[in-house]
Design goal:
The protein is of the alpha/beta class. Helix content is about 35%, strand content about 25%. It has an 8-stranded mixed β-sheet, with helices on both faces. Bound molecules: cytidine-5'-monophosphate. The site of cytidine-5'-monophosphate has 12 residues, from α12 and β16.
Length: about 400
């Protein structure tokens, strides 16, 4: 479960720093990557070379090392990690963290990170029990910093009591627990439609649209990340389906409807597909030939509206039905009307008019229309739109 995870390990200056070397080994045995950072005091106890050798990664040690800053800024360094671990976390480091000081590389990383921080305190028992440390630990807990240890036992200084750094395997267990994501959708089933549909004219030709499936794929991944079982009903999209979802491949709107109905029951269904409005009636079984009669006349018939069909189901309607609306003008008004017309609960509306670069692009600017509100979201990467929408769905189903 640690495989592929990246831990930014800040090694503070304490006698327990030698245990950080074993911690690096244990993490790497489990497939985690370790990016080590040594504080100036930490470097008095273990050498950058031994840390780098065990981590298989360069050791970072000074904010003002200009080569490092050029290679990788401290912001980037702190964000590329899945978790920041401070071991040993000395009284001095805890105090700086609690106060929000950022005078060196380690503390700057701790201030700049957007990831969770796990600290393994290690200090003399009296320092641990000192009111200043009590205050700092309480502040850090309030700030959301996780703690493992310290343990009680004989101390290097000859005293006995709490202050010994947790053992490397205890820290590994705490790291694993910290990395388990929240899964509010565990045990829930969600259907997502995605991509364009292809409506055949003959065996080799079809009517299609420019949908890439990017938003649908991102949404399926975000719902999966929150623990949902996802049935991903996709037309022939150019973006591949995410791993870890059940992929149901279809071509036409009619097949898409059948696949969605077959995937029911579900607690939620999100219709991100760009479904063709029409199909060609009596599509030819053989390739149409160019002939003396000129081009063939194509007769079109309306496709089923999958969203409306599911939203209006008397029985087995998902508790939450979400549609998308790609509009080019008057987005909120058009989409609100669409919400009522289709009978769905929410509509995710976006402006796909020329020049927005949204259709087929990497970003999306949406308005979420619910029963009561129209919320404009800022322009965001499609993955971030997906993450926010998945969280809203999880909250709604909670
Ligand atoms: O009517 P319009 O195509 O603008 O509606 C868009 C919404 O309806 C999307 O959520 C789309 O997936 C869904 N839809 C559908 N079946 C159709 C047409 C649209 O599910 N035939």
């Amino acid at each position: 479960m640690l495989a592929g995870k990246r831990v930014l390990l800040i090694i503070g200056g304490g006698i327990a720093a030698y245990k950080a070397l074993d911690l690096i080994r244990r993490l790497r045995e489990r497939g985690a990557g370790v990016v080590p950072v040594l504080t100036r005091a930490g470097a008095e106890f273990v050498t950058p070379l031994s840390v780098a050798a065990l981590a298989g990664h360069k050791t970072y040690s000074d904010l003002f090392d200009l080569t490092d800053e050029a290679e990788m800024g401290h912001i980037q360094l702190s964000r590329a990690a899945d978790l920041v671990v401070v071991a040993p976390a000395t009284a001095d480091l805890l105090a700086k963290m609690a106060a929000g000081m950022a005078g060196d590389l380690a503390t700057t990383l701790l201030m700049a990170t957007d990831k969770r921080v796990l600290a393994a305190p290690a200090m003399n028992v009296r320092m641990w029990q000192h009111p200043a440390t009590r205050r700092n630990v309480a502040q850090l807990a309030a700030d959301g910093v996780l703690m493992v240890g310290p343990n009680e036992g004989d101390m290097a200084c000859g005293e006995f009591g709490p202050g010994r750094m947790a053992e490397p395997l205890e820290i590994v267990a705490a790291i694993e627990a910290a990395l388990v994501p929240d899964q509010p959708l565990a045990g829930r089933h969600v259907i997502v439609t995605s991509g364009p549909t292809h409506e055949p004219i003959d065996p080799v030709r079809y009517i299609a649209n420019r949908s890439s499936g990017a938003q649908g794929s991102a949404l399926a991944a975000a719902l999966r990340d929150l623990g949902a079982r996802v049935s991903f009903v996709t037309g022939p999209a150019s973006v591949p389906p995410p791993p870890g979802v059940e992929v149901l491949r279809v071509e036409t709107a009619r097949q898409m409807l059948a696949a969605v109905v077959g995937a029911l029951p579900a607690e939620a269904a999100v219709f991100a597909a760009a479904v063709a409005d029409w199909h060609v009636t009596g599509a030819a079984g053989r390739k149409l030939k160019k002939g003396a009669d000129g081009p063939p006349a194509l007769a079109l018939a309306e496709n089923p509206d999958i969203l409306a069909t599911i939203a209006r189901r008397a029985e087995g309607r998902p508790a939450l039905v979400v549609g998308f609306a790609a509009e080019t003008e008057d987005v909120t008004a058009q989409a609100s009307a669409k919400r009522l017309r289709k009978g769905c609960d929410w509509i995710v509306a976006n402006d796909v008019s020329e020049g927005t670069g949204i259709m087929g692009g990497a970003e999306n600017a949406v308005t979420l229309i619910t029963e009561t509100d129209a919320e404009d979201w800022p322009r965001l990467p499609k993955a971030e739109v997906a993450r926010r929408l998945a969280e809203r769905i999880a909250r709604h189903l909670a």
